[in-house]
Amino acid sequence: MPARLEQRATTGEKLTEEDVLSTFSVYQPKTALMVAEELDIERRRAVRLLDELAERHDLTKARASTETPVWLRPHPN
Question: Domain 6-72 carries which CATH code?
């Protein structure tokens, strides 16, 4: 399945789902805001990409003790 392309908000550079996945270490939780800041994109766009990756089981979405969801990359096994 080819990676969906997105435009970065400020640079116009193409952004792939692999770019998003590369911001995570195994079992490292991140919020959409953290990913958005790292990739220089809007938070809403980060949420959309993160949710798409969670639907494909490339990431896991969880809620900690707050209302803010976090995504993490499961172990590759």
Answer: 1.10.10.10
